[in-house]
């Protein structure tokens, strides 16, 4: 896969929710019409639909990671920063429920899931692991294996958001409730 130029990447991300929520995902020809590009242009950057899906999910993972990292860097102790990171994750996924569906379905059958999960592990799970490790050393969190705890948090958030309707997943009360539930799962007391 070649990296598309920023203008095309932006247009693709604008229709990403529609592409990721369609079952089966649309053909590249259909996506080309949605973004106002030629079929040849998309085939230049993507070898096929699976390539495009991997691009969309990876790009959304990176965008979500920016929101999460920004929230976690606002200061405070490990618990406050973990709460901010989890709330940012819930908020981002709540505004982009197609990502949840895409992560669980679109790439699973294509064999490209590993690529997206690697990006997720680097950009999202990595900062969560760092927060959990810091909090464990400070006695704030009881996590056992930090990597497993980070994956449990990510899974809880993903499934929690996916289990709600699109409008309810973006609701502030739901975000606070799920954040509290997830963070309580790692608190020492």
How would you describe what is shown here?
This protein is mostly helical. 75% of the residues lie in helices and 0% in strands. Helix 5 runs antiparallel to helix 6, helix 6 packs antiparallel against helix 8 and helix 9 packs antiparallel against helix 11. The longest helix is centred in the middle third of the chain and has 25 residues.
Task: Describe the secondary structure blueprint for this structure.
Blueprint: H1 6-14, H2 16-21, H3 28-35, H4 39-45, H5 49-72, H6 78-95, H7 97-106, H8 113-137, H9 146-162, H10 166-169, H11 172-184
Helix pairs in contact: 3-4, 5-6, 5-7, 5-8, 6-8, 6-9, 6-11, 8-9, 9-11
Which sheet architecture does the biggest sheet show?
none
Q: Outline, from the CA principal axes?
A: elongated
| SSE class | mainly alpha
Number of DSSP helical runs: 11
Distance between the termini: 47 Å
Order of helices and strands: HHHHHHHHHHH
Low-pLDDT segments: none
Could you write a compact summary of the structure shown?
The protein has 189 residues and is mainly alpha-helical. Helix content is 75%, strand content 0%. It is built from 11 helices and no strands.
Any descriptors?
189 residues, mainly alpha, 11 helices, 75% helix, elongated
């Amino acid at each position: 896969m070649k990296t598309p130029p920023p203008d095309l990447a932006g247009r693709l991300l604008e229709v990403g929710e529609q592409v990721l929520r369609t079952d089966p995902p649309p053909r590249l020809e259909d996506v080309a019409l949605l973004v106002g590009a030629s079929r040849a242009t998309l085939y230049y950057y993507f070898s096929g639909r699976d390539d495009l899906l991997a691009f969309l999910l990876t790009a959304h993972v990176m965008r979500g990671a920016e929101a999460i990292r920004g929230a976690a860097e606002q200061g405070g102790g490990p618990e406050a920063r973990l709460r901010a990171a989890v709330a940012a994750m819930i908020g981002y996924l709540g505004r982009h429920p197609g990502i949840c569906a895409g992560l669980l379905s679109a790439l699973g059958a294509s064999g490209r899931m590993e690529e997206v999960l690697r990006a997720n592990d680097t950009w999202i799970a990595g900062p969560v692991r760092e927060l959990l490790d810091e909090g464990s050393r400070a006695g704030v969190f009881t996590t056992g294996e930090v990597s497993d705890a980070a994956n449990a948090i990510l899974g809880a958030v993903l499934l929690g958001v996916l289990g709600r309707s699109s409008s309810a997943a973006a609701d502030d009360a739901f975000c606070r409730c799920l954040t509290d539930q997830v963070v309580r799962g790692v608190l020492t007391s």
